[in-house]
Amino acid sequence: MSDSQFTINNAALCIVHCALIASSFFFFALRSSAQNVAGGTLHGNFELDAQYYRPDSLIGEPAVPQKMLENSFVNFIYQNNDFSAGLRYESYLDPLLGYDPRYTGSGIAYRYLRFNKDGLDVTAGNFYEQFGSGLVFRTYQSFALGYDNSMDGIRVKYNPAPGVYLKGVIGNERSFWTEGSGIVRGIDGEANINQLFKARADKPTNWIVGGSFVSKYQVAQSPTYILPQNVGAGAVRINFTSGGWDIYAEQAMKANDPSADNNYIYQNGYATYFTATYSEPGFGANFGFHRLDNMSFRSDRAAVTTNLLINYLPALTKDHTYLLLNIYPYATQPEGEEGMQGEVFFNLKPASPFGGKYGTDITLNFSVINSINKQVTDTIGDYTSNPFKIGNEVYFQDFNAEVTKKLSKKVKLIFTYAYVIYNKDVIQGTPGYGIIYSNIAIAELSWKINSKKNLRTELQNLYTKEDQQSWAVLLAELTFVPHWFVAAFDEYNYGNDIADQRIHYYTGQLGYTKNTNRITIGYGRQRAGILCVGGVCRNVPASDGITLSMTSSF
After folding, report:
1. How many CA atoms lie within 13 A of 214 on its CB side?
2. pLDDT (0 to 100) of residue 224
């Protein structure tokens, strides 16, 4: 048998194997949107992502001896009046490239029992929760990022009076297939003033105030450092809404917490987060500011990357969807950053001087992130920092403008321009690369051919003199309502100074959707890079091969 025949046969086996894994879930999901079980209802969802990897030395793909890798999960949730229970079965055999290999294996990774009645809500087992914006506590799961820090313990939520909300949590965080050694404990309280006091029930202005306290306990076992075993963090917040205004502010402080993140210094942590939004028909604006100083907070002081994080530090950069706008995404720097973001949206009405026949939408967005001001005070790295003085080093800047114009009843054009400054040394932790300056221009055209067919095309270009130099993307996607779509794109590193690295990263996909079921199969190359969602990131290595994705809910 030739190598090419062997490759084709293995690819076919990949498709058959993945289809068998998923077929039982699809069959179950197609039968009903929810199943009646023992007087209650059973519902859930499942997802499978698999790839057969084709060796491709040209793009620097890591070796994959298994040939095929897959990530999958299925959720089951049972509800019966005031009682509910759930579990999630996960399988990583082995994890897709870019996911932590410590996920390797299969098993029940999430399970809980929950009772909710008369304002009292008690959960035993795994749960996700957030206090305020997350500055001192947030547990959540992102399958795309390979991120999960769910708590395993007890959560109690109580609503003793209208407008008063109390929460208490205690437990350990998930660390792949085990749990972190640190114990996390927290309380949160919130009061809606307009609901709490009848005299304010019909007032147009609403005030919500809240506060949180979280502590972690971890045994100190270090021959070098005298480490605190209990570390506390607290936050206060306020939310004001009136008419088109929505203003939110939160301030947090964390006690000294020597860890691998801050090189074991004895320094308190601080975080300030502020957002203001105004909207009315045809116009909207928002502004955000945050300052982070030594705010990494983990239940294990030795953990790194995204493992065992207790808190979440909201990003102040726009989440982009286009390929080239995500070549240089920003990762939040918890040890110190100060930044702001502003965005304005306005609609030029139809028949106005610049609106044209169908009107025009314009969005302008700008974000900038800098270092914080620091003055080192001793040999172990402790420092002072002036909160009213911004650091000199630029970490990230992103100015982008988007214009959406309907040219006819069937044709719509979106034009986007962005200028991005990216400090690769800081964001990726790779000293010696310096700062990257890039200009990105994108034109997207959508054509509604008829009631059943829609064609969408994208032409993207990124120009830079640094890093891998310039890129171009050409994409076409044809949708056949309501079930089918086919797409193809080529991401081409045409400006690379090294001729052998002027590579085409081509991809083709075919997808089918019916009700809540969706299946996508594709073939192509994926460039190496960083995937970020909300400032949380993971590295994605280069790969080449057949991909299969299935999702369903029931």
Report:
1. 33
2. 86
Cβ(537)–Cβ(331) under 8 Å? Answer: yes
Question: In 93-163, which ranges are E strands?
Answer: 105-117, 120-127, 141-142, 147-148, 151-161
What's the mean pLDDT when you consider all of the chain? 91
Count CB-CB contacts under 10 A for residue 226. 8
Q: What is the pTM of this model?
A: 0.89
The DSSP code for 130 is: B
Altogether, the residues listed in the chain come to a count of: 554
3-state DSSP of 419-455: EEEEEHHHHCCCCCCCEEEEEEEEEEEEEECCCCEEE
- Tell me if residue 528 falls in helix, strand or coil: coil
pLDDT of residue 1 exceeding 80: no
pLDDT band at 253 (very low <50, low <70, confident <90, very high): very high
**Domain extent listing, the chain:** 131-311, 324-373+387-467
482: preceding bond cis by omega (within 30 degrees): yes
Mean pLDDT of 36-62: 91
Residue with tokens 């927290």: 186
Adjacent-strand bridge partners of 158: 120, 166
DSSP output for 324-349: GGGSS-----TTEEEEEEEEEEEEE-
Is the CB of residue 341 less than 8 Å from the CB of residue 330? no
Q: What percent of the chain has pLDDT over 70?
A: 94
